[in-house]
UniProtKB/TrEMBL annotation:
Chain ranges of the Peptidase M20 dimerisation domain: 186-278
Signal peptide: none
Stretches assigned to coiled coil: none
InterPro entries noted in UniProt: Bact_exopeptidase_dim_dom, Peptidase_M20, Peptidase_M20/M20A_hydrolases, Peptidase_M20_dimer, Xaa-Arg_dipeptidase
GO MF terms held by the record: dipeptidase activity
Name the UniProt record assigns to this protein: Peptidase M20 domain-containing protein 2
Species of origin: Channa argus (Northern snakehead)
Pfam families with a match to the protein in the record: M20_dimer (PF07687), Peptidase_M20 (PF01546)
Highest classification ranks of the organism: Eukaryota, Metazoa, Chordata, Craniata, Vertebrata
Family of this protein: Belongs to the peptidase M20A family.
Length: 407
């Protein structure tokens, strides 16, 4: 048996031995869901888990963001003078408003910690690795809101990381799904209040502007490319029926397969919002948050390795994965560091962002699939760590994907 297979076998044994601890960790996060930026208990639970795991972990709580953390171990192996290869596993743990962990972020946290712990246990006695290796676990909060990973990128959290791994629960197993670019816009209309029955002619109706804007967008959709998405809500529509609304607010998400296409979609949407203001005599204000989510860059080498390792563990990958139009701040990470973001089945046909999916994410049935995914991720990392040629190919794929994105 070669060295690579021995390491893979060892990490699988480690994860199997710790399955009850890992399930308890995931269930604790699931049972007390916290919104983006407020994940204090999940942060503390994960920090405690890693701190208690092995004193060799260097754990930093509140790392650059109040609910982010970083844990590092190593380096181990490799000859003197070789640069350290820092392999990172990312955790998410924020929940959705009113729905708890309906996107399964408690399982993402479990996968990240399990994969890192398994890989550490398998590498800690290895002295003949081609390069010295460090393992990092990075807790990345607020994916469902501001995009915590983007804030961490700005703060330099990924500056010394060479490879990134995470996995997201879904309806099927897939080594890659093309998560799309995302921008958000807040649209505010300012009119003039008046008595809606006695003096309607003296008012400027901001609700009319909001309704026209919503309908303008609905009409626009028939002219959009099939892969483009725009959807939103009216957050504030007025105060009382007999007062002409002087203020309304809408919130829309805009998505395109490629980041560069967002500019075209934004221009079309903004024309709809301005037209509603002109038609009603309102003033309009459009604001965008500081962070735009990029589409995920693929890495064919990592995807192929993940599928190979997954199949050894019994994962079945569809020949043609279903379309997916979701977005993630991992896309921004994939632009600066080679990585992989596969999806995994958790024994339910329910869809993400539903109450049924939230229930499944906390269930015991999801554990087999979650820990199997953690093993496949860690085994993929082993393939890269143990073979300089594979690492070279991963980096070449990354460079080619970046060039293609920029064209």
């Amino acid at each position: 048996m070669d060295q690579r297979q021995q390491i893979k076998n060892a990490l699988q044994l480690c994860i199997d031995k710790r399955k009850d601890e890992l399930h308890a960790l995931s269930w604790d996060i699931w049972s007390r869901p916290e919104l983006a930026g407020e994940e204090t208990r999940a942060h503390d639970r994960l920090v405690h888990f890693l701190s208690q795991d092995d004193p060799a972990w260097t754990v930093q709580s509140c790392y650059k963001l109040p609910t982010a953390f970083r844990a590092s171990w190593g380096p181990v192996g490799g000859g003197a003078g070789y640069p350290v290869l820092n392999v990172a596993f990312l955790c998410e743990y924020d929940a959705l408003p009113g729905m708890g962990h309906a996107c399964g972020h408690n399982l993402i946290a479990e996968v990240g910690v399990a994969a890192a712990a398994g890989l550490k246990a398998a590498l800690q006695n290895q002295t003949e690795l081609p390069v010295p290796v460090t393992i990092t676990v990075l807790g990345t909060p607020a994916e469902e809101d501001i995009g915590g990973k983007i804030e961490l990128i700005k703060a330099g959290a990924f500056a010394d990381i060479d490879l990134v791994f995470m996995a997201h629960p879904a309806q099927q197993d897939a080594s890659f799904l093309p998560c799309v670019a995302l921008d958000e816009v807040s649209v505010k209309y300012y009119g003039k209040a008046s008595h809606a029955s006695a003096y309607p002619w003296d008012g400027v109706n901001a609700l009319d502007a909001a309704v026209l804007a919503y309908n303008n967008i609905s009409v626009l959709r028939q002219q959009l490319k099939p892969e483009w998405r725009i959807h939103g809500v009216i957050k504030h529509g007025g105060v009382k029926p007999n007062i002409i609304p002087a203020y309304t607010e809408l919130n829309f998400y805009l998505r395109t397969p490629l980041l560069k296409e967002l500019c075209d979609l934004k221009a079309k949407a903004e024309a709809c919002f301005r037209a509603a203001a002109v038609a009603t005599g309102c003033q309009v204000e459009m604001t965008y948050p500081p962070n735009t989510f990029c589409n995920i860059l693929p890495n064919a080498t990592l995807a192929n390795l993940y599928e190979m390792n997954g199949k050894e563990l019994g994962i079945q990958f569809p020949k043609e994965p279903a379309n997916f139009s979701g977005s993630t701040d991992f896309g921004n990470v994939s632009v600066i560091v080679p990585g992989i973001h596969p999806f995994f089945y958790i024994c339910t046909n329910a869809l993400n962002h539903t109450e049924e999916y939230a229930e499944a994410a906390g269930g015991e049935k999801a554990q087999l699939y979650t820990l199997r995914t953690a093993k496949a991720l860690a085994m993929t990392a082993v393939d890269v760590v143990c073979c300089p040629e594979v690492l070279r190919q991963v980096r070449e794929d990354f460079s080619l994907a970046k060039l293609k994105q920029e064209k």
